[in-house]
Amino acid sequence: MRRGLPRRLAALSLTVLGLAALTGCSGAAAITPPPGVPAPRDCGTVNIAVNPWSGYTANVAVVGHLLKSELGCNVVTSELSETASWAGLDDGTIDVILENWGHDDLKKKYIDGKKVAVELGLTGNKGVIGWYVPPWMAKTYPDITDWTKLNGYADLFKTAGSGDKGQFLAGDPSFVTNDATLIKNLKLDYTVVYAGSEDKLIAAFRKAQANRTPLLGYFYEPQWLLSDVKLVRIPLPNYTPGCDADKDAVACDYQPYDLDKIGRKRFVDSGNPAATFIKNWTWSNADQNEVAKDMTQNGMSAEQAARKWVDANRTTWEKWLR
Q: Which residues constitute the signal peptide according to the record (predicted)?
């Protein structure tokens, strides 16, 4: 990291999904802010939820690093499912969710109903969820990207786990998906089989492309894998607002997401400078993928990947401090 400004030093502690991450500091000297940036109030401890995908851990790596080095915060992370993260906003164990994918039901419950959470603005990331096949399949079977033709290929996708139906491979069971309902309502001869995690889902798509074996599954962006393996999306019936309102009747594609941030209301209302920083924080899919790939493929710890990105993007992150 560049050393143009005096810094508070953070102590190494927790691990984010098996990757080393800095989690706090204490007894540090006061920060001298850059011109135009007001001196920060005491940040104290910031509790950040960590959801189980690599893009989210990239968010935590960079945001957490800057909260510690620039604002002197003590950052504590907790690995949680999406639903459990929202519950943490309610019981006070979580201050912020850095990447929220829709969840209108949870917003209604915790923001509109219990009034314990607030929206903190967009992350800048564009989220896409869908059904994908490896590129070799789209080239070999050009009409496989037409969902109405999928039943004709069901036998091709049979596995020991799917029985007499074609396999549809999902990821982490905690991810909120519509796939089983879509299969039922679109009358497709498939069954959902869970890979178990993002890492296992990625490995399955890599293997399917390398070995030219059939695979149909759930995937999404931003995700660094798409820069290595150009998975081909299968468009489902067009998404229209409200077509997924009844979870038992969903027969349309996933909605496009403008990913956003959610904060615990008392944390935000306290005037903590970390809340202002997180409100200001936005970056691109390319930014997130760069950090996530460094952490998962290039042998870097969360701290090393964050420092690399921070050193190369000073003009971007200094705006988040204002």
A: 1-28
Spatial distance between the Cα atoms of 128 and 258, rounded to a whole number of angstroms: 9
User: Does residue 96 sit in the same domain as residue 32?
Assistant: yes
In a domain, 252, yes or no: no
Total of domains in the chain: 2
Range of the domain at 155: 128-234
Q: What is the pLDDT of residues 27-81, one digit of tens each?
A: 333 344 555 554 446 899 999 999 999 999 999 999 999 999 999 999 999 999 9
Peptide bond into 40 cis (omega under 30): no
| CATH code for the domain of 272 | 3.40.190.10
Task: Answer yes or no: do 116 and 15 share one domain.
Answer: yes
Give the whole-angstrom CA distance, residue 234 versus residue 131.
5
- Rounded CA-CA distance 150/143 in Å is 9
Residues 40 and 54: their CA atoms lie apart, in Å, by 30
pTM: 0.82
Closest CA to 6 of 65, 70, 63: 70
What's the CA gap between 145 and 184, in Å, rounded? Answer: 19
